[in-house]
Amino acid sequence: MHFTQLVYLTEIVKHGSISAAAKSLFISQSALSQSIVSLENEFGATLIKRSRYGVKPTYFGKQVCDDSEALIRQFNHAIARWESIREESSKISGKVHVICSPGSNDFLSGVVLDELHTTFPNIILVLQQTAQMRDGFDAFIEEKANIGLGSVVETSVERFKQEAESKGFVFELISKEEPLVLLGNKNRFADRSELTREDLKQLDVVYYSDIREPWYTSLFRGTACQLPTKESIVKFVAGSDAAAVFIPSSIRKEYTTKKRSLSLIPLAFSAPEAILPICHYLIYRPVEKLTPAEIRTLDVIRFHPYTP
């Protein structure tokens, strides 16, 4: 069944004539008749009766026609609403300054930028990376930014939330990233269903070089190297015996799904011994202090939460 068939049926009933309906729909009478016959076959019931006095719906056809008219009205209302939203979206403009902690900018520079450019073409996103979000508070206080996107270990969420709210900011948790160890498929542990503490002690770990050494490196044998980008980490792990954690899916996807040269393996042990989950969050000023462009940027980030 197609929506257009329901439109055709309502037009026939409205005009009381297949020829008149065909003219209003700009299609041939034969095409219109075939469409209604197909609809009747699908229902297993006659929808219209033809006579020398014109075309009238059957009892069942009248019910289908009435419901179809309601659907068409609802559809037209939705179209008008979508067009209005699209028109209003194009009118929203301005620069939006976002403070990002390391890792968060990978997310913003991908799917969020694409969505903003498509839906809100006149919003300009200005990203500023900071070593940690506490440094971003100063930018908030100095009114250089009104939105922050960051990450914190799960055990620190409540403390950080209280700190943000004590400064008058809204704290909003948007997603949680469970730790997965990234290994090249040639690694001797690549076929494991999970990794133990003893397994990690036989692996070197690679991490992002523009941040201080992560807390989890002590769980591994040592540090293979520090690399300047997450892309370089993925390539290094794919061709070595080293491991990595917390590499965004947008970066590792080509290697895990297309080239199939990487494996993602969960841990066999849990906190506090394990690598703790990372929680991704938003910090922003109260909504009444935000511009329309900032509010829409928050909406897009919520719509595309960070996915590991």
Question: Keywords for this structure?
Answer:
single chain, 308 residues, alpha/beta, Arc Repressor Mutant, subunit A, D-Maltodextrin-Binding Protein, domain 2, 3 domains
CATH domain class of the largest domain = Alpha Beta
- At CATH level 2, the architecture of the largest domain is 3-Layer(aba) Sandwich
Helix count equals 11
CATH superfamily of the largest domain: Periplasmic binding protein-like II
Count structural domains. Answer: 3
Write down the overall mean pLDDT.
84
| Largest beta-sheet details | 5 strands, mixed
Shape: elongated
Distance between the termini: 39 Å
- As a percent range, the share of strand residues is 15-25%
> Which value, in Å, is the CA radius of gyration?
29 Å
Give helix and strand order, one letter per element, not per position: HHHEEHEHEHEHEEHEEHEHEEH
* Sheet/helix structural class: alpha/beta
CATH fold descriptor of the largest domain: D-Maltodextrin-Binding Protein, domain 2
Largest beta sheet: what is the strand line-up?
4-3-5-12-6
Unreliable stretches covering 5 or more consecutive residues: none
